Amino acid sequence: MESTSGFDFMAEGDVDSEEQLVYLVSNTLFNVFWRGIGNDHPQCWQERGQVLGCINLLALNNELITSHLSLRLRILEMAVQASLFDLSEHGSQTHINQENASNILRMVYELVVLGSNEDESKKCSTKLLDGVLALLDALMIFQQGSSDDWSDMIRLYLGLLLKCSHHPNPGIVAMATAKLHAILQSRSTEDPAELSYLLYSINRALDNAIEVGNPEEYSFLMPVMKALLEKCRSAFNLDTTLPDLPSTSSGPVFFNDFQMYSTSKKWRNFMERMVKPLYDRYQREIELHLWEPINRFWAECYEACKAASKQRASFQATNRRVFQQKIYMPWKVRQVEEMQRLQNAALQHKTNDSHIRKKWKTAKRFLYGPRGPWFTGEIGEEFWKLSPHENVARMRLKLEPQLYPNKHENAANLRDNATSAYDTKEISEFDSTIKNAVVRDFLADDESSQLEEELRQLIDTQSQQDTALEKLVMSQDCELITLMTKVKGRIEVNQSVFTFVDMSPPMEDGSKHDFRFSINKIREVHLRKYNLRRSALEIFLIDQTSYFLNFTTKTRNKVFTKIVGLPLPNILYGSGRSPPELLRASGLTQRWVNREISNFEYLMYLNTIAGRSYNDLSQYPVFPWILADYTSDVLDLTDPRSFRDLSKPIGCINPKNEAEVRGKYDSFEDPSGAIPKFHYGTHYSNSAGVLHYMLRVEPFTSLHVELQSGRFDVADRQFHSIPQTWKLLMDNPNDVKELIPEFFYFPEFLKNMNKFDLGHLQITKEKVDDVILPAWATTPEEFIAIHRRALESEYVSQHLHHWIDLIFGYKQKGAKAVEALNVFYYCSYEGAVDLDKITNPIEREAVEGMINNFGQVPSQLLREPHPRRLTQDETAVKLLRSELKRPDLTQFLDKVVQYYCELSTPKDPIVYLSPPRSPPRSFLQLSPDVLVSVSKGCILGCNSWMSFDKEQGFLLEIDATTTNLKNRKRIFGPFHPSQPPHSQNFAVSTDGKLLYAGGIWDNALRVYSLNKGKTLASVTRHLDIITCLALDNVGSYLVTGSRDCTCIVWSIQGNQQSGAPPNNIPVHALTGQSHLQAITQLNTQNSYSPKPLTVLYGHDDAVSSVAIYTELDLVVSGSLDGTVNVYTLQEGQFVRTLKPIGCTESCVQISYVTLSYHGHIAFSALDDTSHSVHVYSINGASLGSKYVSGRVTGLATASDYLVVADDAGDITMSRLHGLKPVFDIPLHVPIQTVVVTPGNTHILAPLRDGRLAVVAVQLPLAGSKKHSVLNV
């Protein structure tokens, strides 16, 4: 706009940012004021007034950074100039322009004259006054004969000039007085009121100038007074009224004379009597015609401004809500989703990197290992950690390779006060940008088959889709307890799948604790305590996996109810009974009394029922010290002096300590009365005690270092000698540590396999390494074997119930506990502390730490004395009375006899006999097991077997169809000519419905229906004939070995649980292995088809025998190359190679492999000169080797014994540890294979002459017939 071009503020030189802001805002406001509102609007000036009104309102709220007067002044300056421009462009006769000009002048008048602010410098400027004078001149309000009534404008004009005539700015005063003087000179007015108004106002200004001593202002005003007196001379007849008034024609003399005269009484009387009344009348007219309309105008503006402000606030609120709903909230949701996506992507990337690193580590370990193609001849240093897998007796036996080891060198340095080092972390061997490529090249061929990770994602995606289709039964936040760690997460359960989602940050290696399993796998659900609160659950699966989940006390029971309310086909315990009720209902005590289960098994059952768990170190299973002799060269297990007194707590076994313990209890008195009396301030089982014993095994080593603030404990306080530990227990009544289960099955915890620096003893300077053993044991394996035999000895069997009374029974609490010197610190007992009532998180954490440190007493299982176990002789008497069903023949080897049954013919002897399988049946139904036989001519027999019959001992009903040419069932392979049917070619499903067969000419794995005798499925994945196969005890996995030198692990879960989802397939399934895709697909795809999971490599010749143990995550394969390879089941990781000892390495072959429930690996070997049998522990320690007279035709295990059958007709039973023979059964006819029935009740041995030899405990029967064989 042209009128504002003269106001280029930026051109005036340098300005600060605040001044620049004021300039820009004032320009913007002016544009809104002048151009933003059209002149044709009826209320345009009220709206323009709102612009200035808003400025005043903001000033009242102190929201402006500059004076509101300055802003209004600048806007009015520009408005006056704009009005002048419009008048000059369109002429002064335009009514709208005149109206605009008059309204602007009123606003200027209100600011300059009526404004209440005393700071006159901010209310007027020379620019404003100059513009106003020009504007008034343009309006020609003093023009004679004008048709417009300008009386209000004249009053406004005169008021402005009078106000400016005594302004602090001399320039403004000069302009105002000059203009006033000119008006008086040029205008011929005779209105006495107007003249009185001017005269009175000028006189007052002169008085003020004289009073304050402002000669400059006086000099400006005197010409105006002189001209005014000239005008008033005739109107007031001054010559008569004031005859002595100085003459106005006297020039400069008048100025001085009037100054003297203005103080005279006559002048003052004139002003008061004649001028003042007229002035007052004129002033009232001004107020009436000018001030009141202006004030009314501004009042309306302010009201409109407030109304508009409210309307605007309401409009803003409405729009804010709409903005929130339509823009902000969707954006916020999208932002949260995007942040979550980014976090998930970062986590997925980290997890993927971790997965790739782990896979590369595993692959490298195999490739450079003794069975890998890049083996250099040197075996590198290995590091091991304890696997969480456990066997059916709840033994955690297995060590697994530690891919990211930590030798805790810094912890050793800190213990020794050496210069601080840091535990070196392994540097990645390749950058993340090439990891995928490296693994892809290793896993895939040129045709690029599916990667394992892609398959896992496919499985997960499919599972998620399947899960989404199912209704979610429950979702609940909880904590996963792992030893000493709480992992925050959430469980989600639907009708078929149980899922735990780890919601904690990932660990350094990117791993998380997520897990997922089919609810069909749930075997037991137990109510548990955690930190003495009844807030936890422990879930056991059929594969011996367990999970310990902590909830709140309010939600735990709801979660339990919903879980056990699901259809759980394999549930054994899930009724929600209390531990004592659960023990009574289980019948375990009577079974133990009758010697049907071992002492170890019974103690482990008691621990489990009482809430002791491997998953929580503060509630670790507790076992007794049983021996007192750790110094003799030979341990005599028949001498009672070799054993500890099990009727007393460990703290007072030494009679010297008994008085001290009793005196401590009697003399203790807590002044506050809060702490009850106690015998022992420590506990027999706590976190520190478990870590003390398990120091040498990861992850316990890391937990020990963490508990000791980042360092190893002093060497003298560490567990370094068993005899020394016992001696300290005897000498110190305050040390009451009992044992842990590992003392009876896990020799590796006594070895420093990871070569940790555990320090030196202070006195002897002896280096602490492996644990020092008693004199009667030379190796950790021998110690464990003897210690376990001691636990099962007659003395312990007869006295163990006393110790059970102390720990789990009626002597645990109350008066009997006091009498037995068996009272511990009150924090150890359930209900002593209510954590839910502690609201302070710091105090709560401290109490939790105290509970962990002191340990926790197990749940009390018995309130009356525990019954004694039967002696061996008493058991024999019961046996004679036929009161014992299915006796374990390993306990009655002196009463073992053999029976013979005609099962087949010499021309077609049985080559395979399955273990008795139990078909699905109702709870009360008593039906025989299925005993499947396959003859040399592939004739299939489904025989019935009962291991106990009141009248006949055992009952065998032979399948009559085997002799009926018309109805008999034959397995149609055809089998490869070089692979005649033998015992390792077949396996029967756990429900007795399916037969799996190898050795087929097309390299296939066949599945047959035993009922129909028909082929149900055929799957080809091997490149050569399947030579052997084995099924696990759970019925989930099958492993096959082949001439192609590989083994394949198959999932068969869907075959036996028709409705089960495929959720139990390990996520590491490698069905995408390259050669699997290359095979021509001649497969039947149905629900019976086994699903290949993992390919196992490492042999140089045909695989001859395989074994699998799902509970311990173990697969073992023997080969004609003379090696036995050990793998993990879930990941297919190569663990180690075992070789037969004492054989000619160049021509040795492995013929049979079997696994004991301990995980012992037994295998038979033959070379050019001999036949032999060898046993290794699950962790690769040799336990014994021996030569056998004939070629081995069958291997099996029965409890702690190895059963060997050979073609010389002998069945030999030997201890697995040391292979010491304990029993020999000569059958005099070559044996085809050997089978041990469940519970070790019988040994079944098909003979080459067609008969079946049944080895069993001789039972005294009423009739002469010892058994029954029926042809039906």
UniProtKB/TrEMBL annotation:
Keywords: Repeat, WD repeat. InterPro entries: BEACH_dom (IPR000409), BEACH_dom_sf (IPR036372), BEACH_Domain (IPR050865), NBCH_WD40 (IPR046851), PH-BEACH_dom (IPR023362), PH-like_dom_sf (IPR011993), WD40/YVTN_repeat-like_dom_sf (IPR015943), WD40_repeat_dom_sf (IPR036322). Residues 577-869 form the BEACH domain. Residues 467-564 form the BEACH-type PH domain. Pfam families: Beach, DUF4800, NBCH_WD40, PH_BEACH. WD repeats lie at residues 1019-1060, 1096-1137. SMART domains: Beach, WD40. This is Neurobeachin-like protein 1 isoform X3.
